[in-house]
Amino acid sequence: xxxxxxxxxxxxxxxxxxxxxxxxxxxxxxxxxxxxxxxxxxxxxxxxxxxxxxxxxxxxxxxxxxxxxxxxxxxxxxxxxxxxxxxxxxxxxxxxxxxxxxxxxxxxxxxxxxxxxxxxxxxxxxxxxxxxxxxxxxxxxxxxxxxxxxxxxxxxxxxxxxxxxxxxxxxxxxxxxxxxxxxxxxxxxxxxxxxxxxxxxxxxxxxxxxxxxxxxxxxxxxxxxxxxxxxxxxxxxxxxxxxxxxxxxxxxxxxxxxxxxxxxxxxxxxxxxxxxxxxxxxxxxxxxxxxxxxxxxxxxxxxxxxxxxxxxxxxxxxxxxxxxxxxxxxxxxxxxxxxxxxxxxxxxxxxxxxxxxxxxxxxxxxxxxxxxxxxxxxxxxxxxxxxxxxxxxxxxxx
Length: 398
What we know:
By secondary structure, this protein is an alpha+beta fold. β5 and β6 form a beta hairpin. α4 packs across α6, α6 runs antiparallel to α7 and α9 runs antiparallel to α10.
């Protein structure tokens, strides 16, 4: 009887203690926001039905009033893109899993009634309430695995936000380039229109041949076709930017400065680029978190391999009108499944995470070198256009 009371009070205490856990769905967002702000100097915002929503809407309206810069376009996208807002919900899912890992499994109540076949007499009753007490000792292990998964989700979300910000910035510059190309195409069409008009008059006076006139007209018609293609490109690039910034309706009436930034006088500093890329890579940090997650999962599987659960609790049985009460114990006998498969799978996941980490580090170094080459080549090409080709074209047009 004493042991039954102890087990019962222990169950009550455990239930009261485990019922005090709460869930904060926006947990981890501050870490994501801090990581993004350190790398972009821009604010991220999670639209979750608070007073901050109105502040974000006011900030969005103020940004749309003036002519947008690249940073402002990225800021609008970080505030307003719904796909990005949906990605933040992964933090809530991971935090809920972390809370779930700290909870005990619910007790199981079992009851049975046995009626005598001879008739008369009172039925026999059997009542029991058991819970997985071994779960108590596995809670720290489960929480360690869930915490590692939570950290992995935070780095993954931060990486997604940074990648998205890069996409918006690239789309903004593509739109600016299309606008500037449209301006150039319009000037070319105007110049060739005037040239064709002069050629037509010269042909009417008999000063040029029909072949020269046809060449002038062909050049003029080709320029109009190129202008039409550029107009379509401008609309397409603007719609892409609208999509990334999450704008619609009257919000799409935004404007930008139509000139691309001038070429920097100084070349981009690329010293120790590989080292900086490896140190600052959020993807590499995320891969490191996956290794930690796989290691914690392997440790959990090793600890719980033989006895994954153990149910204990009080049981009462009534026979012939008298009650008998005592403890009950249930646990699986590891005859066939001794956890080999789960341990092997977790070990394989750990090896895969380690190899993916090293492969990613090599890929980041290679990408850094390739980007360095592309940046230097793009700068040389831009300078060649500015200093040689464009002045030459201007002379030809004049």
